[in-house]
Amino acid sequence: MTLKPAPADPRIPLRATVARARVEPWRRLALFLLLLGMLGTSVELALLEHYEDPRQWIPLASLGVGCIIALVVALRPSASAVHVLRFTMAAYLVVAAAGVFFHLKSNLEFELELHPSMAGRELAIEVLKGAMPALAPSAMAYLGLLGLLVCFRHPALAPEGGAT
Questions:
Q1: Which one, out of 4, 13, 65, 138, has a CA that is 20 to 30 A from the CA of 120?
Q2: Separation CA 31–CA 95 (nearest Å)
Q3: In the chain, what is the greatest distance between 2 CA atoms, to the nearest angstrom?
Q4: What one-character DSSP code corresponds to residue 12?
Q5: What is residue 9's DSSP assignment?
Q6: What are the boundaries of each domain within the chain?
Q7: Who's near 6: CB < 8 A, 6+ residues apart?
Q8: What letter would DSSP give residue 159?
Q9: What region does 161 belong to: left with phi over 0, alpha with psi -120 to 50, or beta?
Q10: Does pTM surpass 0.85?
Q11: CB 59 within 8 Å of CB 137
Q12: DSSP letter, residue 118
């Protein structure tokens, strides 16, 4: 299969144009997977009624904002849109860490209420296996990392006439 680069721009080296042509299909696929993951996670949280407490709205709101920004980057990429997506995806990492903390804290409180004398390894295992899926919020971290990968050396961030 022969790769045909875009029409030559004398300001951009041919090697950079060919490299971009190889990367962009993967970037589009990653962006599609990001959108699919955000929509799927949103639906799952809604089906689980993950909106009873104000803290439970944080991932839902984050996912909604992320979907909108990712669509903007997909349909009308600009440097500012990519920067906002990058910031949002970094925020997903914080949201994931907070979610894991809240889930573990809830499980710990529940286990200590049921078994006040439980401690050590046994308590740790029960907290991890508890009613709240302790590591489920880490899905937000996966989405955040995927989104940061989409933003990495995005063509919209290239200086005028320069290579990415």
A1: 138
A2: 20
A3: 74
A4: S
A5: -
A6: 14-151
A7: 17, 21
A8: P
A9: left
A10: no
A11: yes
A12: -
Return d(Cα 32, Cα 38) in angstroms, integer.
Answer: 10
Q: What is the pLDDT of residue 22?
A: 67
- Contact between 49 and 111 under an 8 Å Cβ cutoff? The reply is no
Token output for 39: 């929509």
Residue 88 tokens, joined: 């949002």
Residue whose pair of structure tokens reads 């920004």 in the numeric block:
69
Most confident range, picked from 18-22, 146-150, 153-157: 146-150
Structure tokens at 149: 């990968």
Any alpha helices (H) in 76-137, and if so which ranges? 79-114, 120-128
Rounded Cα distance between 3 and 53, Å, is 53
**What number of H helices and E strands is found in the chain?**
5, 0
Token duo for residue 90: 């970094």
Q: Grade residue 130 by pLDDT with cuts at 50, 70 and 90.
A: confident
